[in-house]
Amino acid sequence: MRYFTILACVIQLLTGTWGYQMFQVNIPNGEIVPHPCKANYIWRGVGHRNALGGDERNPFGLAFYAAGAKWTKNLCQLDSDGDGKTNGEELGDPSCVWTPGQSPFRLVGLSHPGVCEPMNSSQCTGKNVWVDCHLDEFICDAMNRNGKMKLTCYVV
């Protein structure tokens, strides 16, 4: 019984950590959707209000669920967040022709299909109150020390 309990806990942890990656591959650029207000951050749980996934769905997540958790032409043409851009435009599939396994038409200039952007526009007022834009402060005492520092960079 003890081993069963441990196994159940491990499975629960793995599903909580990796459970939503299976949905990322069902939308174009699902693995690289940018956070709307944190530069260089990726919004892993694209269909959720929590950037890491889980919990309550955002407007795109509700539409994605209604579409059977699949990228459809209708879902692509929809503007889930009400910012004037279709989900396809935001995710790099403006012509709504992408299928899983293909490379999307565009890999840059993406935006979040569940967050109204630009966030401070009058069009988006009140729609993004749930979005967390707080940045964690980077603290490294070694950076404040006097003297020489050695920095090594590796190119892989």
TrEMBL record:
* Annotated signal sequence range: 1-19
Ranges for domain Temptin Cys/Cys disulfide:
19-115
Keyword Signal set for record? yes
**What organism is recorded for this protein?**
Potamilus streckersoni
PANTHER family tied to this protein: EF-HAND DOMAIN-CONTAINING PROTEIN (PTHR34737)
- Name of protein: Temptin Cys/Cys disulfide domain-containing protein
Q: What is the lineage of its organism?
A: Eukaryota, Metazoa, Spiralia, Lophotrochozoa, Mollusca
Q: Sorted alphabetically, which InterPro entries does this protein's record hold?
A: S-S_Temptin, Temptin-like
Keywords of this entry: Signal
